[in-house]
Structure formats: structure tokens, C-alpha cells
Design a protein that fits this description.
The protein is mainly alpha-helical and 1108 residues long. It is 69% helix and 2% strand. The protein has a two-stranded antiparallel ribbon with strand order 1-2. A two-stranded antiparallel ribbon has the order 3-4. A hairpin with a 2-residue loop joins strand 1 (801-802) and strand 2 (805-806).
Length: 1108
């Protein structure tokens, strides 16, 4: 009786909490209930059974099987009886929201505790749960079906741990429920449960379940007497199973490992035997069902949708399943790919008329009373209708195209390729829904054009596929796109001549122009082979026709014409008059009084593109009223920045930055207005990192103008100082951080004459907040500001005093704070760059004792941290010092540091050991080309020094012991093993790796600059210097050496002479010199280098010495 009383008490507690959590008693009770419900399981072993009984209270099978026997030991009968005896309690339990919440809480509880705590969830309770829970799949109405979904999730969670060993009959139980179902809801629920269970399968579970489930699901899917939703859900199960099988035995599951190691061969052979057997078993499973699967789904894919009112769920799952088969088993089903292509293309061609009639053309052109298409949703709430099925078919085509081998099947026939591209241009037409967005929310419309992930649609799917064609097929793809474009443009003209008032002509024309505007790969190909497309004639036609249309008539077509012409300005480099005409048209369309927002945004972007074209100065100078025009541009861009929302704010901000750089003299009279707008928007969008970065970029360009920099120093910096000296919580930490970014920009661009003013106004406020706060982001931004002071002020900072307090002493106190071992690593980021700047700029003014203290504190911090970013930052200090100071003296100093503090968890004996071991472990993970240049050449200089201490030093590295040369995606790559090897050997391999990474950087740089170089008519320059020259630049100054702006984000790093080193020249020189002196090292290297490293080493040794 006491036990029954305790159960009843816990039941009432749970029920009361559920009632409160539904919000029925008011939101003020929810927090309290959330806490109470988490405490109940700690002293109630029956908590999950109580939740289950509440969730399944109205389920007849559960009541009949577990609540009908009057047994004092029957927990469920006693609980059921308690509910029945109290009408109020019964009514509460019958509330759908209470029962659904109980099921969801049970799911969360099982996910957290099924394998975590035997005390909270005993094995006996687990056993009982597994017996009862499947009854929750027997749903009879909407309410119970929602509970059934939660029950399915619970079963899936349990199956991940217990199937098949502890729950061998799970699949049999669910199939039995499916076969015994008497409603579509129940049949669907059982299959949905199987699909969720399959999502949790491991490779072992997949091998057990696949031969049982897949043929059974295919039988269900093939039965046309079964409701379409149920057939579709059967295919969902197949999708999960085929995907998991592909992870183990698909085309992409095998990886080659080129690392040669003679250890553990016998163990590896055993592992390889196991994996080979698993793979063979999986391939046998695939062969059993592949033929009937393809036959079933190809038949459905080839059948076009005939009505937008119908249920498309079965075809949707067929296309999804085919997509999985192509991705995972593309080479296996290669002989079927042509059939897949033909079936999909034929279906899309036959569905094209429906697309035009219901999605593209207005009622006035079709005669339909309504263009609405039927909306259907799957069990996850995803839309399944005509539009989404068309998208899925296009995705299938994209999967084939992006497979290099399968794509060749399509590219082998140019006529088929043109036919498909022609079809995709048609499907790219603007839909009625997108027109409505243009009218109701124009900024969203532009944002969706800019961001392909903003709102997926048929149009975006088509554009993605066309981009894939150009990227994967190169010249053939570009040539085929041009052929299809010409066909569609001619078709558009014929439609116009037939009926100029019909929407079909301009929508097709707009889609055609979109197809030659949106893809960088296509435009890049055109730049190289401009004869492929007569773009001069197209631009001339757009100038005469589309760009002369009234904006309120066909704004979509005009917007596209503006975008298209601006993307292809490179065609007009010999026709400056045409560029001038376009510029004047773009400027006209920036006018807020006459133009809608989308056109103004496209015009804004187009004007910015004109300013980046070669010889644009000549174009602008030839314009009448040049100064007035430039003012209009600036005012128009600023008005946009003041009006638009965050969705498209990047467009005017990026354009303003380009304009400021192009025409600084025009900006000066408007600097107050520009600064005010930027300040207002920074305060408004401080939480949006992307927009805030764009605003900071504008300030960066403004600061390059001496007259405006003066204004920023004398008026903006005091305002920043005033704000950050106030209550930071009220101001907002994000805004404070962005103000520090602006301050950094002002300080970095200031002259030495301006530094004293900044030291007296801005510096004290910055020091105050960074010395009194530990906020990570705040300290990172503050550290950059102090670094900028050192960079611009140099000795002035050391000499400056505030009320008899040395400003530099405050900086040293701040560095001491950043290097405290117990300070959060994130708060210390940037400390290495700050210290390096101090040593470089004012090191000669510092006492050696101060330098030694900083270095010791840095080593102690290095020993305490596991953060890669902070490790890189601190190692950077020493990498720079090895370039600038006597290496022997630096090694002496590091060797003398023997007390690394209590946080020295790795028990390093000296500072030298700590530095070299940390460096050896992390060098390969350092990020950024600049840091790679500094650290790799520093390592090479260490090797060249020949210091005996380095020869005696060993480092510990981690290697991956691969279990097999054939690895599977569901497996781990191998076990991690530590090895101790000589520092010199490992440092050499790191230098080789740096050479490999430098080649990758160079390849990426050339690819990214290729487009820009052709577009703007710029010659590629090589600003790098050899090892013999770069030290001279340290002495002679660095202002003449600039790398590409986009290569390095840090402007101070950009002008460092070390950044001018060409690793592809310098590293081979240093390696050859070292090997010529230390020939004995080469045989050792050959044993440990991978195939890729050996190839790189051979390249370096055979490289021709280049003198610059």
C-alpha cells in the first residue's frame, strides 16, 4: 500500500507539472514546473512509466492489455484506476496537449538516461518499456497520431542502443503492427517509425535490417492499392537503408592512404579482412534489390505529374531514392544513368506546360480562375507539391552532372545538353509568387536573388544546375548554354511579335538574361573566349530597348538588364562610350523619387562595378556635369544605406566603400553625412557581424582620406571615448566592440602628429575598459587597438604619460594580465601579435629585463593553453624574434626558463622544450598564409643555425595508425598514436608541408585573381622577395610592399616585409642549403615522408635557384 501511495503521489506531481507546462495556469508557473519535473526522476523509479501511461491513456490496445487486470502488483491497473476514480483528473489526462507533452518528455528522458544511469532507469523498467511502447504506434485519430510520432522517436532512440542484441524482434513487432493496421494513419505511423529507426542504424544494424526491410518496403511501395502516402513512407525507409548501405559499401566509401608504415601489418591485415567481408556482404545485399528498386522508381519518375491538385508524395520519394542511389552507387548503376536522364528530362518537359500555366503566367494570360496549386505536407511538415517535386527532379540531374564519370554520359551528346539547358532556362522564369514578393517585400526579393539559400525554389534549383554545367563541362557547358540562350531569346522575340501584351515573352527574356549573368564560371569562360557570344550586340540591344522601358511597366526585365550589362562590362573595354551610356543609365536609376527599391539596389551594384573597370577615370571625365553626377551617386548610395533593412544592407555599404576609394574628393564635402549614416547603422546593426564588418570597411576607406582622417581623429574618436567610458551594459557590448573596431581604424591610419591627441583622449578610455573587464570579445578588440597604437605611435607611446602615469607601463600591465595562466584563453587571443609589434617597433627602447619577463610569461601561458589560436599567437612571438634577433641568444634565454608554473600540465623542463614541442605539434594546423610564411621560414632559420641544443631535442607527434587502406565512412580513420622523434627531423617535414600548403595557396590565389585580372585589365605582379632580400626590407621599411587586399585580413600584417616572401622560392633554397651541409638527414627523411611529401621534397631539391 505504501508503494501504491508513493506512485499515486508521484503521478499527481507529474500531472500537475504537465498541466503547468502547457501554460494552462499562466506563464508564471512554467519556470517552476520546469524545475520540478527534472527533480521527480531522482526519487521516482517509475517516472517514465507514469509519463507513458499518461501519453497512452486513450489508446485502447494499451488499456486492454495492461490496465484491465485487477492485480495489486499491476502498476498500470492501479494508475489507471486512480485516474478513472477522479473525473477531474481523467479530464486533465485526456487533454491532448497534456498527453502529447508527456510523450515528448518521455522521449527526452530516454534519450538522456537510457544508457547513462541505471539508478534512474533500472533494467526492469527498460524491459517493461520495450514491451509497452510499440502499442503507442496504434493510432486512430489526429491526436493519437501525434503521440504515435513521439513514440516512434522514442523507439528510434532505444533501437540505437538495443537493436539487434537487446531487442532482436523490434522490426518484427513494427511490421506486425503495420500488417494489423485498420487505417491509413496507423499504417503510415508504423512505417514512419521504421524510417526513424533506420536513421539511427550503424553499419552493423544496417546489415542485419537491410535484407529484411528493403524487399518488404519495396513490396509495399509497388502495391498501387495502398494509399500513396503509405507507399511513399515505405520508400522513405528504403532511402534511409540505401544511404546507410552506401556509407559502408558505396562508391565514395573507399579512401586511399599513402602513408607508408611497416608497424602493425598483421593487425592491419586482420582488420582489412573484416572490412573486406563487410563490404562484400553489403554489395551482395545491394545486388539482391537493385534491379527491382530501379524498375519501380524509374517507372514513376518517367510518369509526369498531370495535375497540380494531385498527391505527389510517391513520386517525390522515388526521385529522392534515385538521388541517393546515384550519389552512393553511381558507378554501380552507371548503365542505368541514361535511362534516368531520359526519364527525368521527359517528365520535366511534359510538366513544363503545368509550370507555365499555374506558376508563371497570370490569370489574364491563361484564362484560369485560380493559379493555386494543391499544398500537401509530409509527416515532417515539409511541403510536397508540384513545385517541390520539380525541384527534386532538377536536384537529381545536378547530382548526375556533378559526378565526373556520370556527367560524361550527358556531355557526350551536345544536342542533349543543349536540350536540357534550354529546358532549365524555361524553368528559371519568374513565378507569380516571386512577383508578389517583389511588390510586397522588394528587399526580400533582392536578397533571395543574392542568396541562393534564402528561399529555395525551382528558379534557384535551375540556376544551380546551369552553374554546374558550366563548372563541370567547361567550354562545352558554356558553348551549350550560349546555344540554348540564343534559342530562348529568339523564342522570346517571336512571342513578343505574336502578342506584346502577353507575359510570356518578357518572362522568358528575363530568364534568358539571368542565365548568362549569374555564374562566375560562365563569365570567366567568356572572358577568355569572348567570340563565343556576341555580347556587344546584346548590350547594344539592351541599351536601346530594355533599359529604356518605364520602370513601373516591366521592373523585373529592367532590373535584369541592369544586372546583365554590369556583369559583362569587360566586353566594352574598347568601347568607353557604351560604358559611359550605361553609367548614366545606372545613375538615373539610383533616384529614390522615380525608381523602386529593387531597381535602385541593382543600379547601386552596377555603378560600383563600373568604378572597378579599367579606364573608368576616362569614362567619368567624359561625362557632362561629372561632379554633379558623382554627388548623385554618393547621395543615392547613402540614401539606400539609410533606408534598407539588414537583408540587403551589404549592397549599398559595399558600393559606398568602392565609391569612397574611387572618388575621395567628392566624399570630403559630404563626410559628415556619410559618417553620421555609418555611425547610425553601426549602432543599429552592431549584433550583425557581416553588416558591421561592411560598415567598418567604409570607415577604413574614409580613414585613407587625410581630410576625413583628421575629422575622425578630432571628432569621432572623442565620441567613442565618451561612449565607452559610460555604462557598457546600457550601451551594449556588441556596440562597444564595433566602436573599438572603428577606433582601431582611426588609430592605425593616424599620423604621428595625431597620435598625442589620441593618446590623451581615446587611449585612457580603452585602457580603462580592458584592464577592468575579462570579456573575451571586448579584450580581443581592445588588444587590436593597443597594437594599432604601437604600430602608429611607436616611441611616442613609450614616452607618453597620463597624469604622471606612463602609458607604456599600463600596456605592460595589460600584457601581464593577458598572459596570466588562469585567464580564459579566448581573452588572451592577439597577445602574441601585440607583443611582436612591441618588440619590432620599440624593442630597442626596452630594458632587457622587461623583455625577459614578457618572454617568460609568454612561455608559461603557452605551457598552460590547449587553444590552437592562442598557441599560434604566442609561437608567432618567437617566430618573429628568430627572424629579428640573434638565435643563439634567444635559445639561451629559453633554456634558462626552468620554472613554468603550476599550470605546466605537460611537465616541460625548460622554455625551449615547451616552445619546440608545442610548435612541432601545432604548426600543421596554423592558419593564414602570412603566419605560414613567418613560422616556416623561422623553422628553417633555426635548422640553419646548427645549434646543438636543437639536435638533442626530441618532440612528440601524433600519428594516425590506419587500420586498413580501405576505410569506410562509418568507421574512424584509425587510432591515434604518439611518437617521439628528433626535433630536426620533424621540423624538416613541417617545412616540406609548408611548401605543399604554399602551393595550394598559390593555386587558390591565381584562380581567385584570374577573373579580377581579366575584368579590370590588370597585369599580375609578383611582389615577393627571396631569402637574400627580405632582411634588407626589415631595415629599409615596408610601405612599398603590399599584397592583394583580399589575401590578408590584418592590415598591419599586410605591410610586414616578411609577408613578401615567396615560400615557393625561399623554402627550396633553404632546404637545399641545409641538406648540402647535413646530407646524413636525407635517408631518415625518406623513411618518414608520405608520398605527397616525398614528391614535394623532390621538387624542392630540383628547384632552380632564383635570384631577385
Amino acid at each position: 500500500m505504501e508503494q501504491q501511495s508513493g506512485v499515486a503521489e508521484h503521478f499527481f506531481q507529474v500531472l500537475n507539472c504537465l498541466h503547468q507546462l502547457t501554460g494552462a495556469l499562466g506563464n508564471e508557473h512554467i519556470k517552476e514546473a520546469e524545475y520540478k519535473i527534472t527533480q521527480i526522476p531522482k526519487h521516482c523509479p517509475y517516472y517514465c512509466l507514469i509519463l507513458l501511461d499518461i501519453a497512452l491513456y486513450s489508446h485502447t490496445p494499451f488499456r486492454q492489455q495492461y490496465c484491465s487486470t485487477n492485480d495489486s502488483n499491476n502498476f498500470h491497473f492501479q494508475l489507471h484506476n486512480t485516474i478513472q476514480q477522479n473525473p477531474n483528473i481523467q479530464q486533465l489526462v485526456l487533454t491532448p496537449s497534456v498527453r502529447q507533452l508527456a510523450a515528448l518528455l518521455l522521449k527526452g528522458f530516454i534519450k538522456s538516461y537510457w544508457h547513462a544511469d541505471q539508478h534512474i532507469l533500472p533494467n526492469q523498467i527498460k524491459k517493461e518499456l520495450k514491451e509497452i511502447i510499440p502499442l503507442g504506434l496504434i493510432a486512430s485519430d489526429t491526436t493519437t497520431s501525434k503521440i504515435s510520432t513521439a513514440i516512434s522517436m522514442i523507439i528510434a532512440e532505444i533501437s540505437e542502443h538495443d537493436f539487434p542484441d537487446e531487442w532482436p524482434n523490434l522490426i518484427e513487432i513494427i511490421i506486425k503492427i503495420y500488417e494489423g493496421s485498420n487505417s491509413e494513419i496507423q499504417s503510415f505511423g508504423a512505417l514512419k517509425c521504421l524510417s526513424l529507426v533506420a536513421q539511427h542504424f550503424t553499419d552493423k544494424q544496417t546489415i542485419v535490417a537491410f535484407p529484411v526491410l528493403t524487399p518488404y518496403m519495396l513490396t509495399i511501395a509497388a502495391n498501387t492499392q495502398i494509399p500513396q502516402n503509405v507507399r511513399a513512407k515505405a520508400l522513405t525507409v528504403c532511402i534511409e537503408l540505401f544511404y546507410l548501405l552506401g556509407m559502408t559499401a558505396g562508391d565514395g566509401s573507399v579512401e586511399e592512404d599513402d602513408f607508408e608504415d611497416d608497424e602493425g601489418i598483421e593487425s592491419e591485415d586482420r582488420e582489412e579482412d573484416i572490412y573486406t567481408k563487410v563490404s562484400a556482404e553489403c554489395k551482395n545485399l545491394l545486388n539482391l534489390v537493385l534491379e527491382p528498386t530501379l524498375k519501380l522508381i524509374l517507372s514513376e519518375i518517367s510518369t509526369p505529374i498531370l495535375s497540380v491538385e494531385g498527391n505527389c508524395s510517391f513520386k517525390m520519394e522515388c526521385v529522392k531514392l534515385m538521388n541517393v542511389l546515384v550519389k552512393e552507387f553511381g558507378l554501380t548503376i552507371e548503365k542505368y544513368i541514361m535511362s534516368v536522364l531520359q526519364s527525368t528530362c521527359n517528365s520535366l518537359e511534359k510538366e513544363y506546360d503545368l509550370f507555365l500555366k499555374y506558376l508563371v503566367l497570370p490569370s489574364k494570360d491563361t484564362g484560369l480562375e485560380s493559379n493555386a496549386i494543391a499544398e500537401h505536407y509530409d509527416s515532417e511538415g515539409e511541403s510536397v507539391n508540384f513545385s517541390t517535386v520539380v525541384c527534386q527532379q532538377i536536384e537529381l540531374l545536378s547530382t548526375i552532372v556533378c559526378n565526373p564519370k556520370l556527367g560524361k554520359i550527358l556531355s557526350s551528346n551536345r544536342a542533349n545538353l543543349i536540350r536540357l539547358i534550354y529546358l532549365m532556362i524555361g524553368y528559371s522564369q519568374l513565378t507569380l509568387e516571386q512577383e508578389e514578393v517583389f511588390e510586397s517585400d522588394p528587399e526580400q526579393f533582392v536578397n533571395e536573388e543574392e542568396d541562393e539559400y534564402a528561399n529555395y525554389s525551382i528558379r534557384i534549383a535551375c540556376q544551380g544546375l546551369l552553374d554546374d554545367f558550366c563548372e563541370m563541362f567547361g567550354y562545352l557547358g558554356t558553348n551549350s548554354l550560349i546555344a540554348a540562350f540564343n534559342q530562348r531569346m529568339e523564342e522570346s522575340k517571336q512571342l513578343y511579335q505574336s502578342n506584346p501584351n502577353h507575359s510570356s515573352w518578357w518572362k522568358l527574356r528575363e530568364a534568358s538574361l539571368l542565365s548568362i549573368s549569374s555564374f562566375s564560371s560562365f563569365r570567366e569562360q567568356l572572358m577568355e573566349e569572348q567570340e563565343l557570344l556576341d555580347m556587344n550586340n546584346i548590350i547594344g540591344e539592351l541599351l536601346q530597348n530594355d533599359l529604356q522601358l518605364p520602370s513601373n511597366n516591366l521592373p523585373f526585365l529592367k532590373s535584369r538588364a541592369i544586372q546583365c550589362t554590369s556583369f559583362h562590362l569587360f566586353y566594352l573595354t574598347n568601347n568607353l562610350d557604351a560604358i559611359k551610356q550605361l553609367l548614366l543609365i545606372y545613375v538615373e536609376h539610383l533616384n529614390p523619387q522615380t525608381q523602386p527599391v529593387p531597381i535602385r539596389l541593382y543600379a547601386c551594384r552596377a555603378v560600383a562595378r563600373v568604378f572597378q573597370v579599367d579606364h573608368v577615370e576616362t569614362v567619368v571625365n567624359n561625362c557632362e556635369n561629372k561632379d554633379e553626377m558623382l554627388k548623385k551617386i554618393l547621395v543615392g548610395m547613402c540614401q539606400l544605406a539609410n533606408e534598407v533593412s539588414d537583408e540587403v544592407m551589404h549592397i549599398p555599404l559595399e558600393s559606398i566603400a568602392i565609391f569612397v576609394k574611387f572618388s575621395p574628393q567628392v566624399v570630403i564635402p559630404f563626410s559628415n553625412e556619410v559618417i553620421t549614416i555609418m555611425w547610425t547603422q553601426l549602432e543599429k546593426f552592431a549584433n550583425d557581424h557581416t553588416i558591421a564588418s561592411d560598415i567598418i570597411n567604409v570607415f577604413e576607406k574614409l580613414a585613407l582620406i587625410p581630410e576625413i582622417e583628421y575629422q575622425l581623429v578630432n571628432f569621432v574618436s572623442p565620441k567613442i571615448a565618451q561612449i565607452i567610458s559610460g555604462n557598457l551594459v546600457l550601451v551594449g557590448m556588441h556596440f562597444v566592440e564595433k566602436l573599438l573596431d572603428v577606433g582601431y581604424t582611426i588609430i592605425r591610419h593616424s599620423t604621428k602628429e595625431q597620435i598625442p591627441f589620441l593618446l590623451n583622449t581615446l587611449f585612457p578610455s580603452i585602457m580603462n575598459i580592458i584592464l577592468s573587464n575579462d570579456d573575451e570579445d571586448l579584450l580581443q578588440h581592445g588588444t587590436e587597438c593597443i597594437r594599432a597604437f604601437i604600430h602608429s605611435g611607436q616611441e611616442l607611446v613609450v614616452q607618453h604619460r597620463l597624469q604622471e602615469v606612463s602609458s607604456f607601463q599600463l600596456i605592460l600591465e595589460y600584457i601581464q594580465k593577458l598572459l596570466l595562466p588562469d585567464l580564459m584563453d579566448g581573452s588572451s587571443l592577439g597577445v602574441g601579435e601585440l607583443i611582436s609589434e612591441i618588440f619590432t617597433k620599440v624593442g630597442k627602447l626596452l630594458d632587457m629585463n622587461i623583455i625577459s619577463q614578457i618572454i617568460k610569461a609568454a612561455v608559461i601561458k603557452l605551457a598552460a593553453t590547449d587553444s590552437l589560436a592562442l598557441t599560434q599567437s604566442i609561437i608567432f612571438i618567437f617566430a618573429k624574434l628568430f627572424h629579428e634577433q640573434n638565435i643563439t641568444e634567444m635559445l639561451n634565454l629559453l633554456s634558462s626558463i626552468t620554472d613554468l608554473g603550476e599550470t605546466n600540465i605537460n611537465h616541460y623542463k625548460t622554455g625551449l622544450e615547451c616552445l619546440m614541442r608545442k610548435w612541432a605539434k601545432n604548426q600543421q594546423n596554423f592558419f593564414g598564409l602570412y603566419k605560414l610564411k613567418v613560422t616556416s621560414t623561422s623553422l628553417a632559420k633555426l635548422l640553419e643555425s646548427g645549434d646543438q641544443r636543437l639536435a638533442e631535442l626530441t618532440v612528440i607527434i601524433e600519428t594516425t595508425e590506419t587500420k586498413s587502406k580501405k576505410r569506410y565512412q562509418t568507421r574512424l580513420g584509425g587510432s591515434i598514436k604518439e611518437k617521439e622523434i628528433p626535433f630536426i627531423i620533424h621540423a624538416f617535414t613541417l617545412i616540406v608541408d609548408a611548401y605543399i600548403r604554399a602551393k595550394e595557396f598559390e593555386k587558390s590565389r591565381k584562380e581567385s585573381n584570374k577573373l579580377e585580372g581579366i575584368l579590370y585589365g590588370e597585369e599580375e605582379e609578383d611582389n615577393f622577395v627571396s631569402e637574400e632580400d627580405y632582411l634588407a626590407h626589415l631595415v629599409g621599411g615596408a610601405n612599398d610592399y603590399f599584397d592583394d587586399e583580399d589575401d590578408i585580413e590584418d592590415p598591419i600584417e599586410k605591410i610586414d616585409p616578411l609577408n613578401q616572401i615567396n615560400l615557393l622560392i625561399v623554402l627550396p633554397q633553404m632546404v637545399k642549403e641545409f641538406c648540402s651541409v647535413n646530407q646524413q638527414i636525407v635517408p631518415h627523411l625518406q623513411k618518414i615522408l608520405s608520398k605527397e611529401q616525398k614528391q614535394a621534397f623532390e621538387e624542392m631539391m630540383n628547384a632552380t635557384t632564383i635570384q631577385q
